[in-house]
Write the structure tokens for this entry.
Amino acid sequence: MITSGCGAQGWVITVHSSGAISYIKKRQCVN
């Protein structure tokens, strides 16, 4: 299961089932 969220800085935080956390910079961020 992957949960992604959007921060005020425009980062998308993705948490993988393995426990790894990925931060992806997006140009546009929609809450």
Residues 1-31 form one domain. The CA atoms of residues 11 and 19 lie 18 Å apart. The mean pLDDT is 69. The two ends are 20 Å apart (CA to CA).
